Amino acid sequence: MIKLKMRKADHIIYLFVLALAIITGCKKPYAPPIVTADNNYLVVEGIINTGQDSTFIRLSRTVKISSTTTAKPELNAIITVESDQNDSYSLKEDSDGLYSSPALNLSMTNKYRLRIKTANNKEYLSDFVEAKSTPAIDSVTYEGKDGGAQIYANTHDPQNKTRYYRWDFDETWQYVAFEQSFYKLGADGYPVYRNLNSSDNLYFCYKSGHSKNVLIGSTAKLTGDVIFKLPVDFIHAESGKVSHGYSILLRQYALTEDGYNYWQILKKNTEQLGSIFDAQPSNLTGNIHCTTNPAEPVIGYLSASTVTTKRAFVDQYKLILTTPNYLPPPDASTCPGGTIHVAPDSTFKERLQITLGSGDSVLTVAEQPIDAPAITAYRYTLVECVDCRRKAPFGTITKPVFWPY
Questions:
Q1: Helices in 205-344 by DSSP H: which ranges?
Q2: Helix (H, G, I), strand (E, B) or coil at 2
Q3: Residue 32: pLDDT above 50?
């Protein structure tokens, strides 16, 4: 009886293993059409700046989701801005699909459109759009909140004509290396003090970035055309961005109602999807068309407006936040230090060259006991530990001209 039960159990296990093998053996990789599709649609980014600043238009092509390529610039195109009064202004190609023109100073009473002719002789044309005057940004404010810094935009139009707004921004922050180098080898091969206010500084670095989310606002349902404390960006303290100072340059654009609706759909489709309770994807239709092939979709919406800007600096000392002074790597475990003693003088220069000649290590600080008349030794460590350019986010030691200190 026991043998029979064991045989039945073995038989069940055998059938289970066999079924599992059949199921897994019949699996085939499935790649949805959206992943494999190579539509190669034109993407148009930018606005016609009608004011005293330059106009920038970036052209690129869509890429497959499965592709390792993230950017596909459209090169050698011819771009012109046209008015409804038959005026035309050309843009020049800069690099990587970016095209620009110096300040156009366009009439605000006319309408404008963009004409694009690509290298393969396809032509694209936007609809004529109204030129909008953008009011000034009243202020960019911030406050410590939920373990980070919340940044807000404040603006208003006393004439109650704008109603629809869009923003983007550039950000710059300072970060530091693990350890500071105060000395380097001079031209004669002996240690000299670094000029910490020049390119000799390796401790402080600056990194810049650009906004990634769609930032829009509307006062269409309000009596007054006033935007107050619109959230622009939230910076987590753990990111280290506000540990040593943070600067934001906010740009503001006035939109038409159609332009606002386009950006609102784009925001929903790119940022507010992910659960059954989120808005469902909507058809995104811009105002740029392919005249060569009207059935070909074009990604983008062309607006024309002046642009207003305001820069603000987030002072880390005014935030009631616990911000990390330094974000590894590297850390103490990967930054071994060493000491080079001055004595004996006869071999000091030779020992410096042996230790530092390859460039893998850098002097840091000098040692001079209280009762010693001169420096008795120098400390050194790996260059990765003192050069902030060697660690993420791989910034630059060149201080921006707008940095406040």
A1: 257-271
A2: helix
A3: no
Which DSSP string do the residues of 305-338 spell out, in sequence order?
Answer: E-EEEEEEEE-GGGS-----S---SS-GGG--EE
Indicate whether 96 belongs to any domain.
yes
Q: What is the pLDDT of residues 288-325, one digit of tens each?
A: 999 999 999 999 999 999 999 999 999 999 988 899 99
Query: CA 404 to CA 213: how far, in whole Å?
Result: 27
Q: What average pLDDT does the chain have? A: 90
Q: What is the mean pLDDT of residues 271-283?
A: 59
Query: β-strand 55-61 against 42-46: which pairing, if any?
Result: antiparallel
Q: Quick check: 4 pLDDT over 50?
A: no
Task: Give the domain range for residue 286.
Answer: 38-126+257-302
In a domain, 211, yes or no: no
pLDDT of residue 215: 98
Can you give the pTM of this predicted structure? 0.85
Q: For the purposes of burial, counting CB atoms within 10 Å of the CB of 274, is it exposed (0-12), middle (13-18) or buried (19 or more)?
A: exposed
Q: Structure tokens of 133?
A: 């005057």
Buried b (16+ CB within 10 A) or exposed e, 63-88: beeeeeeeeeebeebebebbbeeeee
Respond yes or no on whether the N-terminal peptide bond of residue 393 is cis (omega within 30° of 0).
yes
Per the structure, the count of domains in the chain is 1
For strand 304-305 and strand 48-49, is the pairing parallel, antiparallel, or unpaired?
parallel
Which residue in 80, 85, 115, 79 sits closest to 97, CA to CA? 79
Measured distance CA(227)–CA(175) in Å, rounded = 33
More confident residue, 15 or 350: 350
Q: Where are the alpha helices (DSSP H) in 32-190?
A: 33-36
**Inside any domain, residue 269:** yes
Confidence band (pLDDT; 50, 70, 90) for 37?
Answer: low
With respect to residue 387, please indicate whether it lies within any of the assigned structural domains: no
CB atoms inside a 10 Å sphere around CB 103: 12
